[in-house]
């Protein structure tokens, strides 16, 4: 009840005409940028950060909520119409969705993706509303040792569960930690790794790092390997679904939601695993197995719902503990910090108004997305044929604008270029991007907690282990590292991912 | 995604005819080691205060030495035939060799922007950036590119000034904008 009251207050704050306008602008901008080929939601949010520079935090967050869901919606449009997923979590959508489009059912694929995303996003956000305050209540009690342990766990999870190679994950993480060192030491005020450059002593602006790695790095990488042939784009009409499509979609939507949310909330492997699991589950449950691989609507409905539910789920660790587990939520956190808001367990209590307005805006943004965008799908699809030189020049233009607008220093554009080249290198050598961003954001926070914990214990290492929660968290971290190694020794054959979602699954379907 | 890539290392190890290693990875390993070594060196120049049991050096030491170790591990992995798979994408065609000229042109355009932005101002510099980048990427409609770029940069200048209250550098456009 308590949560619902707070949410109602948040809705009241978010529903002023002016704020609704920001939500609409956010949804439209997010979809616009998200539909553009080569731009995923993380890059969409990163590129659009500067648009919110002059806004109040509340309004900025309302816009972000719209941009966030808009960017994700745009991504599924690209997957279905181009068969080229912008990010790994849309792979499953691309498989079935594009087959449907080729059979002339693009409108139905788009509709089931959009409605499924709406349902999953709404249920997911409501679950966040109920979960996050409870978690935050625990989180406020968390001392420096446990908080340090949780950050270690978050890094271990992000680095070793995502991506193909642990070595590359750790290389990326430690690159990020190195970038996180740059600037004044938080305790003694001495500049570290700043090459006597006063502009570097002020710490790296996370917005510049994110825009450089995501946007410029991607643009340079594509420029080096630009496909010279035009892509084949499937025309769409108005998205709609027949009675049969509804009947086949609603269960996958709910099941996908049930699978996706826990994966986002527990930080266990981003959106890839749940979308994959949802796809496998739908194929297993389907009575028309032969349709899978040839455009089964369940194969779009389930994974799209799972994708959005896990995206909503990532707000639980983000709001309750200030820990981002996806690239997009990392960029959102960067946006929070640029408003001087400290990520961490105190967020829900210190910035309660802001958090509840954000949660309310997520619901509003999600609904607006459906109302505004479903009729506009054919229009968005036109964006796919934008000439590539203009598209990537535009990304360069807006990335530079974003880096420059914050402080109006040419040096910041230089830093953008440096991080763009780092991003290029990472794509060339298959280094995952997320661990680096996590390292940059959480590294300084981690050091603060570490030094806090040891200052309390007078430098004794036991200061890191004197909370039982910390011990539990370390135990989980060790399990995460050791289990796959043991499994590989015991069973050399590939083991499919196992889903802890069964119980929640039933629970939700019965509601 | 992850299921297909899991065991990349062992397969191509015995194939002697094709290049068994990705030599460029040694460069990455060297870079990692150099960054790590410099981080350690930089930490030695810091002074540790009193009453600060950890001090500003511990994190750089740990991070720097781990970077060196990761560099060495990458060398080992490369020797054993590990090959990275470049990132796929909607407009990416990895069957062609990398087009370094285009990348160099884009970097040049950005460097030009960095050097001139204070002098020319965003409205002009941004327009040139767009047109220059479009040219680098193969567009040959220069006049149109310049017009599109100028419209975008002037519009974004006014958008930031009017909408967000942030006056971007006017440069030589001062008084006109």
Automatic annotation (TrEMBL), chain A:
Q: Name one Pfam family in it.
A: TctA
Q: Which InterPro entries match?
A: DUF112_TM
- Is this entry keyworded Cytoplasm? no
Which organism is this protein's natural source? Nocardioides daedukensis
Q: What is the name listed in the Swiss-Prot or TrEMBL entry for this protein?
A: Putative tricarboxylic transport membrane protein
* Residue ranges annotated for the DUF112 domain, each copy included: 20-438
**UniProt keyword annotations, A-Z:** Membrane, Transmembrane, Transmembrane helix
Any stretches that span the bilayer, and where are they? 20-49, 109-136, 142-162, 169-186, 206-224, 318-342, 354-377, 389-407, 413-443, 464-487
Domain of life, per the record?
Bacteria
UniProtKB/TrEMBL annotation, chain B:
Q: Which InterPro entries match?
A: DUF1468 (IPR009936)
A Pfam family per the record: TctB
Keyword Zinc-finger carried by entry: no
The transmembrane residues are 24-41, 61-79, 100-117, 123-139, 146-168
Annotated DUF1468 domain ranges read: 28-168
| Organism superkingdom | Bacteria
Q: Does the entry feature the keyword Iron, yes or no?
A: no
Keywords in UniProt for this one?
Membrane, Transmembrane, Transmembrane helix
Q: What is this protein called?
A: Putative tricarboxylic transport membrane protein
């Amino acid at each position: 009840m308590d949560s619902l009251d707070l949410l109602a207050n948040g809705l009241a704050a978010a529903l002023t005409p002016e704020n609704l306008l920001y939500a609409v602008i956010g949804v439209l901008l997010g979809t616009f940028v998200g539909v553009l080929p080569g731009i995923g939601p993380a890059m969409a949010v990163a590129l659009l950060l500067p648009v919110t520079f002059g806004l109040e935090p509340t309004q900025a967050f309302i816009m972000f909520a719209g941009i966030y869901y808009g960017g994700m919606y745009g991504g599924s449009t690209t997957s279905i119409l181009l068969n080229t997923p912008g990010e790994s979590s849309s792979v499953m959508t691309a498989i079935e969705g594009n087959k449907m489009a080729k059979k002339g059912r693009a409108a139905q694929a788009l509709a089931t993706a959009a409605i499924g995303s709406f349902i999953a996003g709404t249920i997911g956000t409501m679950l966040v509303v109920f979960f996050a305050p409870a978690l935050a209540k625990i989180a406020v009690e968390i001392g420096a040792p446990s908080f340090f342990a949780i950050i270690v766990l978050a890094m271990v999870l992000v680095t070793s569960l995502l991506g193909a190679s642990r070595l590359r994950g750790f290389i990326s993480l430690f690159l990020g930690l190195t970038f996180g060192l740059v600037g004044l030491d938080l305790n003694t005020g001495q500049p570290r790794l700043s090459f006597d450059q006063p502009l570097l002593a002020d710490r790296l602006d996370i917005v510049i790092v994110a825009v450089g790695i995501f946007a410029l790095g991607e643009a340079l990488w594509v420029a080096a390997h630009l496909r010279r042939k035009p892509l084949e784009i499937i025309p769409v009409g108005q998205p709609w679904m027949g009675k049969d499509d509804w009947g086949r979609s609603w269960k996958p939507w709910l099941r996908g939601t049930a699978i996706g949310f826990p994966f986002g909330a527990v930080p266990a492997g981003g959106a890839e695993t749940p979308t994959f699991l949802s796809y496998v589950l739908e194929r297993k449950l389907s009575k028309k197995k032969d349709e899978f691989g040839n455009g089964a609507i369940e194969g779009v409905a389930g994974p799209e719902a799972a994708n959005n539910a896990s995206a909503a789920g990532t707000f639980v660790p983000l709001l309750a503990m200030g820990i981002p587990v996806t690239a997009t939520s990392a960029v959102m956190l960067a946006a929070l910090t640029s408003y001087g808001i400290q990520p961490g367990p105190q967020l829900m209590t210190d910035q309660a108004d802001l958090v509840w307005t954000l949660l309310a805006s997520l619901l509003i943004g999600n609904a607006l997305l459906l109302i505004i965008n479903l009729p506009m799908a054919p229009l968005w699809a036109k964006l796919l044929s934008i000439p590539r030189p203009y598209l990537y020049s535009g990304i360069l233009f807006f990335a530079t604008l974003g880096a420059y607008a914050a402080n109006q220093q040419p040096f910041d554009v230089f830093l953008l270029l440096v991080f763009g080249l780092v991003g290029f290198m990472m794509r060339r050598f298959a280094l995952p991007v997320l661990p680096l961003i996590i390292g940059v954001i959480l590294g300084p926070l981690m050091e603060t907690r570490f030094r806090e914990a040891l200052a309390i214990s007078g430098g004794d290492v036991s200061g890191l282990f004197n909370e039982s929660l910390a011990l539990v968290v370390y135990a989980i971290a060790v399990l995460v590292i050791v289990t796959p190694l043991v499994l590989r020794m015991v069973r050399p054959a590939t083991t499919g991912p196992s889903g802890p979602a069964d119980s929640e699954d039933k629970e939700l379907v019965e509601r | 995604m992850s299921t297909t890539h899991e065991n990349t290392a062992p397969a191509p190890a015995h194939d002697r005819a094709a290049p068994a290693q990705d030599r460029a990875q040694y460069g990455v390993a060297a870079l990692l080691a150099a960054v790590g070594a410099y981080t350690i060196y930089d930490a030695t120049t810091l002074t540790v205060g009193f009453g600060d049991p950890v001090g500003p050096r511990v994190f750089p030491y740990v991070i720097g030495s781990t970077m060196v170790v990761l560099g060495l591990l990458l060398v080992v992995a490369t020797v054993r035939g590990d090959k990275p798979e470049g990132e796929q994408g909607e407009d990416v065609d990895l069957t062609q060799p990398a087009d370094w000229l285009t990348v160099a042109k884009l970097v040049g355009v950005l460097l030009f922007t960095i050097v001139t932005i204070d002098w020319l101002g965003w409205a002009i510099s941004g327009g040139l950036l767009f047109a220059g980048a479009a040219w680098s990427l193969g567009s040959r409609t220069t006049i149109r590119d310049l017009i599109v770029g100028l419209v975008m940069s002037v519009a974004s200048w006014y958008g930031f000034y009017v909408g967000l209250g942030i006056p971007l550098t006017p440069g030589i456009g001062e008084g006109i904008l």
